Amino acid sequence: MGSKERIARLKDETRLNILDAALDIVKDEGWQSLSMRKIADKIEYTAPIIYEYFANKEGILLELTRRGYIILAGEVRTAMQQHTDLAEQLEAMWIAYWNFAFKYKELYRLMYGVDTNCCELKKSMPEAELADDMIYDVIEKIMKDEKPAEDLVCRKFYTFWSIIHGLISINLVNKGRDEEMNQRILKDAIKGIIKYIND
Amino acid sequence: MGSKERIARLKDETRLNILDAALDIVKDEGWQSLSMRKIADKIEYTAPIIYEYFANKEGILLELTRRGYIILAGEVRTAMQQHTDLAEQLEAMWIAYWNFAFKYKELYRLMYGVDTNCCELKKSMPEAELADDMIYDVIEKIMKDEKPAEDLVCRKFYTFWSIIHGLISINLVNKGRDEEMNQRILKDAIKGIIKYIND
DNA sequence: ACATTTGCTTAACGGTGTTAGATTATTTAC
DNA sequence: GTAAATAATCTAACACCGTTAAGCAAATGT
User: Fold this and answer.
1) What's the CA–C1' distance between A3 and C28, in Å?
2) What is this structure's pTM?
3) In this predicted model, what pLDDT tens digit does every residue of B23-32 receive, in sequence order?
């Protein structure tokens, strides 16, 4: 009887529906307000059946991250295949990575734990810029000889901040990597960028 | 009567107790499982009084972030004051920033939205490394002439990843900054690091 | 001594993730 | 075709969450 397969196909379909519904909700309302009952509403079932397809809510998130990684790998691969020169290849791949992050914002957030919890209110917090301003000033002074344009200093600052914040994030999320290597990466990067400032 | 002041001081004290209790819970159990009732338990009150000191849960988090920024600014400042040479100053300041992030892990997570939601399970996900491996290989090829040591390639990879991930995070969290500048930072950084690979 | 304010608690509302039990629909067996 | 068995789904509940309203009891002002 082919009905077994038809039923299996239907099961797979609602499994996909659950994932799609979850992603739709997140796109509309953010990760914070994703709930099992909302997913159930969207697929026109009640909440408990979701547990026939996923162990729990985290199971859904985990499957979505998995899909995110697969999509990312695909985009990076096609970028790679469009170049032969190694340096060009590498640049294209990183740009593909970058583009993925913004094309699939929600997935990227999930994959790398970038949270936006209470960020509207954070804007009106002067303390948030105390440290930044100090660093900004020093960068400006280093470049002073050349009367740097405002946005050039800004770019240097963000370059610095990105690399440090990126390293930190990676270490906080995938905690407990090689501590010594991190320190070397950090110092290398800082020295490199400082040298690069004066180009 | 000085009792007014004594009472005011007591109020300030329980305000601090609330913040301390919250941070303690987070240190022990993570942000996910911080609840008003747990805070209340720890300060030996019931949940509703917390609302006499903070508008809501987000208010507590916001005050903790504020304190985080102030501490960070302090550490960066003292780092700055210990050097005169500008380049050394800048390096020390970034290292202070780095150290802050790990000394006050929980605060840093709060301040910059680095979430660790469901990360234990993510380790056992082979798809997570598909894209990484491809990029890793290209870096290795670029450096091939020099028979690079394993950990040197690794360092380069993380340097790349950090800067891109950092830039992305910053843009996802403080969304909608200058798009053009971001692209320039990105390309600059990539080109810079590629050049730097062959040193 | 009475009235008022203050500090704090209990009870509740609507929401969450999740589980157990009842119910309905579908398939299987005779 | 009807009865039994199985699958699919729902309702109800549990324990928790953030938050608010009502009430009590002690301290205070007069």
Assistant:
1) 14
2) 0.87
3) 999 999 999 8
